[in-house]
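Weekly structure sync, notes
Attendees: PL, DS, HV (note-taker this week)

Item 1: Murein L,D-transpeptidase YcbB/YkuD
DS walked through the input record. Source organism listed as Sphingobium wenxiniae. Sequence as pasted into the shared doc:
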Amino acid sequence: MPAASAAHAVPPGRTRLITRPFRARRIRRALFCPQILVLGLIASAGAAPMARAQDAALKEAPARSSVAAEIRAQVGGKLRDFYGPRGFWPVWVEKDAVGPQADALLKLIDSAEADGLKPGNYDPKGLRRAIEDADGSGDPKALARAELALSKSFAKLVADMRAPSRAVKMRYLDPEVEPRDPGPADILRAAAVTSSFEDYVEKAGWMSPFYMQLRKARADYGKTWADLPDVAVPTGLKLKPGAKGPGVGALRERLGLSPGGGYDKALAAKVKAFQGDHGLTPDGIAGPQTVTALNRGPKYYARALALNMERTRLLPGPWVRHVVVDAASARLWYYSGGKLDGTMKVVVGAKESQTPMMAGMIRYATLNPYWNVPPDLVERKIAPKILDGASLQKMNYEALSDWSANPQKLNQSSIDWQAVASGRQELRVRELPGRSNSMGRMKFMFPNDLGIYLHDTPSRDLFGKPARQFSNGCVRLEDAPRLGKWFFGKTLTTDSDTPEQHRPLPQPVPVYLTYLTAASGKDGVAFRPDVYGRD
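Item 1 (cont.): predicted structure, written out as C-alpha cells:
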C-alpha cells in the first residue's frame, strides 16, 4: 500500500470521532503452487523439516486448488483484480477450513465503533454464517464464498479506517504521500505480502501504531474517567491529604467518591491516578494545575482524544518505511517491515516558530552543510554584534549578495549594518561548515518552501530537558548519524572538508511531522501540553 493510502472523504455511515497478508506468503506467485513456498524454505530448513513441509504442502494442495477453482468461478468485480494475478489462490482459507485471521477480522469489526464506524456495515453476522457453513461442510464452494465475503468486508473496513477527517489538516509536499482511495486489490495485495496475515489483521497493520495504541488507551480511559460527574472544583486552593471543607467535597464528587468525608487515602489515590493519566506529576495533591485539569471536564478530554485519533489516522502503518516526528512530545520514530526500528529525542519549533504539520519525501542528505541564517535572526542576533565590533569571519559566518545558488561574497565593511539591524535591508548570511555549525555534520532534506528539514546539532544540552520546543521550526536530531545509517544502510562519512556534499538516499523515505497532545502512555493515555495552541 502506498505510504499514505487513505480515502479522500469520510465513508458513508461513518460517525466521525470529532464531534469521532497471508501468513508467510513471501513469494510472488508467478506459479501459485505450495511447492514453491517449500522450495524457498529449503536453504534454512534442513532435510527433515524440508520433508515434513513438503508433505504438508502436498496434502494441502488439492484442497486449496479446489477452492481456487471455485474462487475463479465465483469472483467478480474489483476482487478479481487481486485474485486473478495470484491464480485465485485463497488468503483466508487454509487447508480445508477458514484460518484464524478471520477471527481477528471479526474481532476488529465488532469493535469498529472505536474508529467511528458501524460494525453492521461490514456484515459480521453474514461472515459468521459463511464461516460456519464453510467449516462445517468443508465444501470448496462454501469455502470460496466465505473467502470472498471476508475479502470484501476486509477491504471495506481498511479503506474506511484509513479515511481521513476534514477536521485535521496535513500539508502534503509530494504525490507519494498524498492520500488516495485504495481499491480492494491494493488493500489485499498489501496484506498478502506481510510475513503473517493473521498478525497483520489482528494488529491492524495498515494503521499507524500510534493510532492503534491510542485507540486502546482511549477505550480504557473512557471506562475510568469519561462518566464521572462534571463538578467544578473551587480554584485558588491547594488541597492536600487531611484537608476538609467544601473544596474537598467537590473534589471527591468530581472523582466519583461520595461528597462526605475528608481528603482521605481513597481520595489521594484517585487524585494520583487522575494526575498520572493527564500528564501531571502524580503527587496526590490537588494544586492549581490539577484543579485546572479537573475543571476542563470530561468533554474536553473526549474531544482531545478524538482529535488526536484523527491526527494519527493520517500516519502510515509500520509496513511502510517511514519517519514520524511529533512536535508535542519532541520525539522521532522510524519504522519498516512491520516494526519500530528506532526512536530518539528531537528539538522542534518554539511557540513563535512552530514546526508545521506536513508530510514529504526525504530525498537526500547533505554532509558538511552550511547554515543559512533566517533573515530575522540576522536582524536580531548578528547585526547588533557586528555594530558592537564583532567580526563575521571570527564568528564563522559569511555575507552573500543574494539567495541564488552562486552568490557573491560580500565584504563586511561594504554592508549597511544599521539598515540590517533596523529591518530596512534583508541580508543573506550563512554559517560555514565546521564542528560548531548549527546544522552539525549532516542534514536530511525533504524539499519544501518553509525551509524545514531534519539536522544534526552541536548543542546537546536541550536534549536533557523534558520540553524541547526551542528551534526555529527545523528538527534537531539527538543522534543524526544513527538515523543516517538507517536511511543509507551504512555509516555516512565524507572524503573531504568540501561544503555541501549531497548524497541521494537509495530510496526516498516518507517523513510525517505531526502534533500529538494525547498519546498512549505507560499507564494509559498521556496528555501533553498544547504548546502550539492547535487543539
